[in-house]
Amino acid sequence: xxxxxxxxxxxxxxxxxxxxxxxxxxxxxxxxxxxxxxxxxxxxxxxxxxxxxxxxxxxxxxxxxxxxxxxxxxxxxxxxxxxxxxxxxxxxxxxxxxxxxxxxxxxxxxxxxxxxxxxxxxxxxxxxxxxxxxxxxxxxxxxxxxxxxxxxxxxxxxxxxxxxxxxxxxxxxxxxxxxxxxxxxxxxxxxx
Length: 192
Known about the structure:
By secondary structure, this protein is of the alpha+beta class. Helix content is 25%, strand content 29%. The protein has 3 helices and 10 strands. The protein has helices spanning 3-35, 39-47, 53-58; strands at 90-95, 101-106, 110-115, 121-127, 133-138, 144-149, 154-158, 164-169, 178-181, 188-191. The strands form 3 sheets. A 4-stranded antiparallel sheet has the order 1-2-3-4, with no helix packed on it. It is elongated, with a radius of gyration of 21 Å. It starts with a helix and ends with a strand. 23% of the residues are buried.
């Protein structure tokens, strides 16, 4: 890789981070900004989380504004996160038992893992179904994911690596509407 390519990738990563943060910034502060544009500078930037790229970029540019010395959140609140990544309708979502991750299944034929606190995607989409994913679930220990699809198969996934485990489970003659793990994680049940 050339130095120019590395600089371009770094620049593109900064722009991507800034844009993702700006979307969250606007989602959280839309109401006060709509009521009075100066609130961008008087309160939104001031009360944005410490990790906000948008606030970091513009904070020092406006003199004589309020400053919060302690107690600010590090990241955007979970309730305000919008998860972007699927290219079609999302049919199913589930939390891991510890609440740290979310799994989603979509008509785009993929399963995605998300950080429940930040809303950031974890790894690449889990790709293996040939049709829409109707149902997803975490195993009780959070190590596995099961998915049921319109392609009439059930798939098991490693929740850490995103790798498919074994071959698709077949037997239904119509789309799978629901999947779940037994309480001890040793069995999977499906409905079609």
